[in-house]
């Protein structure tokens, strides 16, 4: 099945468009304009992604409109792959990879959607014992390059376990919502 997914640049552009804008729907001509691709190539790839189960189509007036199929079993993994391939997350992974003693770094749903429902919503959760001064200095450079402020929380593994055991809202929100593991293994901390 996956062989049908990544064989064309038009398909990758369509994947990015839908997975980075999950609430949007598009008709073929709008995608042709957005992606600057030929209509037949766009139409063919939309049909392929619909047959894969990633997209759904509906007829609205005289147009066929495509939306992301939220029930697709590969949705989370595909979105994670697309986001990890973005320049922003590659930059963050590169910078965080240079800092010692980070067991896990994850990107939260708030960061991905740019929607902060609660004042405690964060963009990045880091678990481990990194040098906070070095981490802050490096992440300030990332913020400047991205032209975006990043809300981070840094917890030791013990503090994370304690908060998780106490079922603190802050930790439960991060764990229950969508997230992307940017660095480390979720098995190390029992995600």
SSE blueprint:
Elements (H helix, E strand, L loop, with lengths): L8 H12 L4 E3 H8 L3 H14 L2 E6 L2 E6 L6 H10 L2 H11 L4 E7 H5 L10 E5 L3 H15 L5 E4 L1 H9 L3 H8 L2 E6 L7
Parallel strand pairs: 5-6
Antiparallel strand pairs: 1-3, 2-3, 4-5, 4-7
Helix pairs in contact: 1-4, 2-3, 5-7
Integer count of domains:
2
**Mean pLDDT figure:** 89
Provide the CATH top-level class of the largest domain: Alpha Beta
List the strand order in the largest sheet.
Answer: 6-5-4-7
Q: Strand-residue fraction?
A: 15-25%
Round the Cα radius of gyration to an integer and report it: 19 Å
Largest sheet: 4 strands, mixed
- Number of discrete helical segments: 9
Contiguous uncertain segments of 5+ residues: none
CATH architecture of the largest domain: 2-Layer Sandwich
| End-to-end separation | 28 Å
Provide the helix percentage.
40-55%
H/E series: HEHHEEHHEHEHEHHE
General description of the model:
This protein is of the alpha+beta class and 191 residues long. The chain folds into 2 domains: 2-68, Winged helix-like DNA-binding domain superfamily/Winged helix DNA-binding domain (Arc Repressor Mutant, subunit A, Orthogonal Bundle); 86-189, GMP Synthetase, Chain A, domain 3 (2-Layer Sandwich), CATH 3.30.300. It is 48% helix and 19% strand. Strand 5, helix 7 and strand 6 form a beta-alpha-beta unit. The longest helix has 15 residues, at 132-146. The model has no long low-confidence stretch (mean pLDDT 89).
Which features would summarize this protein structure in a list?
191 residues, alpha+beta, Arc Repressor Mutant, subunit A, GMP Synthetase, Chain A, domain 3, 2 domains, 4-stranded mixed β-sheet, 3-stranded antiparallel β-sheet, 9 helices, 7 strands, elongated
